[in-house]
Fold this sequence. Notes:
It is built from no helices and 14 strands. By secondary structure, it is mainly beta. The chain has 2 domains: 17-111, Immunoglobulins (Immunoglobulin-like); 122-206, Immunoglobulin-like, CATH 2.60.40.10. Strands 8, 9, 10, 11, 12, 13 and 14 form a 7-stranded antiparallel β-sheet that branches. Strands 4-3-6-7 form a 4-stranded antiparallel β-sheet, with no helix packed on it. It starts with 16 loop residues before the first strand and ends in a 19-residue tail after the last strand. Mean pLDDT is 89; it is low at 1-27.
Amino acid sequence: MRKEATYKSWFITLMICLAVVLNGNIVFAASTVLSWTAPTTNADDTPLTDLGGFNIYYGTAPGSYSQSIDAGNVTTYQVDNLSTGVTYYFVTTAYDTSGNESGYSNETSKTIPVPDTTPPAISSVQSGDITYSSASIAWTTDEASDTQVQYGTTTSYGSTTTLDSSMLTSHTQHLTNLLPATLYHFKVLSRDASGNLAISGDYTFITSAPPDIMPPSTPVGLRAD
């Protein structure tokens, strides 16, 4: 139960920073970091020398706070286990070592967004610029995502390009040191900023034959008649 304030009301600023937890798999809980400025005086304008700590009150309706947390004597606190898709309203109070509690700070709110669980849609996969030892692979995605290709002479692939972590919708990777006149299988991979991975189906291309670099034999039997 919150006691009546026995020292000066004070204004507090709450800064909200959303942190959706993604630890391998999407989890539908989030954390919000609150920070504020501590009071320095009592209700009678005398210096506050016995600050005990802060309480955080929050709920899902303006002015109605069904949850409370004793944050201790800190001015930054992470509130965990918030539900996605819900708007939360926060206030905080200060209390002294005698148990006297201030009035509420200003109210601030944050809507916790629903995590993105949809992988990018891959389209327009194609191979090009094929030589006897190299090829280029290109594709597009419907959202910004990274770029990587797995390739090899069977559907087990066996080789993977270096990940390009640039978040793009048009993707290109260059394959080098390929064997000439060989069928290659490949698939493309793109992961979005939320960690959702898309993997294409299997595609193929054939490298060209090596260039003819063998000159003709030296002519013989030259004579002048």
